Amino acid sequence: MTDTRAVVQLGIKAATAYNRPDLGERLSEVLSSLDDRAFHVVVVGEFKQGKSSLVNALLSAAVCPVDDDIATAVPTFIRHGEEGSAEVVYTPEDDGELDAPLERESIPLDRIGSFVTEGRSSGRRIQTVEISLPRKLLSRGIVVVDTPGVGGLGSSHGTLTLGALPMADAVVFVSDASQEYTRTEIEFLKQAYGFCPNVVCALTKTDFYPSWRRIRELNQGHLAAAGVPAEIMPLSSPLRLRAVRTKDRELNQESGFPKLVEFLNSEVGIQRENDLINRAINDVLDVASQLESNFAAEREALADPESAKALVERLNATKEQTETLKSRMARWNQTLGDGVADLAPAVDHDFRGRVRTILREADEAIEKIDPADVWEEFEPWLYQRVSHDVVANYAMLQQMAADLAVRVSEHFDDDSADIARHLEIYDPSRALDATSVNAHLDIEKATMGKKAMSTLTAVRGGYMGMVMFGMLSSMVGVALGPFGMGIALVMGRKGLKDEKARQKAMRQAQGKNAVRKYCDEVSFHVNKDARDTVRRVQRQLRDHFSARAQELNRSANEALVAARQAAQTGVTQRESRLKDLDAELRRLGNLKKKAQAVLTPEAQS
What we know:
This protein is an alpha/beta fold. The protein is about 65% helix and about 10% strand.
């Protein structure tokens, strides 16, 4: 990475020396991306499966709280730092303003546990806890993320974890060796693999469960059936911590962690770092080529004055093409505008369809149940289902935005990988957190008061029936005798049944209304955030490709001016100027050679 920085800095110096601040600014942004690189490794899994213990053992530091009675409540980000430090990031007080600035507070390392497990501090909701540690594993830019275990994978917390996976560089799925994968875990793995193909499965607590090999075999079968080609790594966190403490290499190998470290170093650290290096070097090569085009055009005109006219015509055509790229009617601008016009309604239509499906399924389910009996189970299902569809909608938005970046870049013969990867599309957790309405129902099925009222209604119905039939029998001169009491009982029973049905229907109506209110509130915030995201992506792509068009136009214009001036250069000045141009071209050629030497072998082939 040091060689890459040196080459980029040489490119910045060249751009400054040749009076191209636009190209220098572009490379300065590249240099910043090298310094601020972050490759996220997200650790996920069910409640109490050993996620926090795994993170502690991996980093040889007790940064994540481990206890039978507590669970991680907020995401914990652990990155490299020269010294150990920790910060709490609070959710903005104005939840309705999704772009509100975040508030940060430094905390001692020994107090991390209370913030991570409680989720609130002084009445403020904690969004994340960020920790810096001087660890070699993290020095390449790896950021380990310990996700919340509250509620498990099937909860809204687990679903929102999925929302962050499209931004992840790798996923470590944690499940202990006590049992094989559950249906919920397999479903989560399938979804996680769809968002981030770089998945590894950690089988924890192998020191505690002797039958872990059988469990691994069963899990491998489940993964194969689900179409998830993830490797299962048996791990023991206690053995790893003991091995580090006693410096026992053999025990460390037995813990299984060296294999996980190797995976993170090779598949995440080195691979992602190489991708970053290659993109940076390609930017340097592009800048050098643009600087080179000016001198190359002038040299060609000086070396062969007879072909200068044809050269000027060719450069003039190139300049006209780049002028077109700058205009609002440029094809890339039309592609961007059409793409955004298609993107916004497609995302909106997709989410509206998902909400309609949720409402239909909820209505059908409520029609078959009594909310007083099962609402405690129904309400978490609703939150999980809504969260799942919100995440799926955001994943669709991200994919469509990345595809749009690719289509626009084709007008420039540009590599869109970098801009597509850094589109400002955030996970949907803040949009869901902003909802102020829930689907809670305060209903009771059979209090003493309600039972008394129902009984009174039944007695009233039976009494009125007996009176009515008694009057009728008197009019026709027929004595009902004991039959009157039977009629009263039948009518009283019917009245009681009707009253229970009425109360159940009322509770069902309350349940449906609560579901609609919650879905309306979620739709309000999610649709607003989606529209803001689309506009943000549009501005980001517009600014990026407008800057590229400006660069190309300026390079073409300067090459044209240089060629025209060269055509008017006298014979006596020509030889001296050719020497100067050859020297400048050699300097730029050396810059390109140094840049190409830094490219990885895969990129050079």
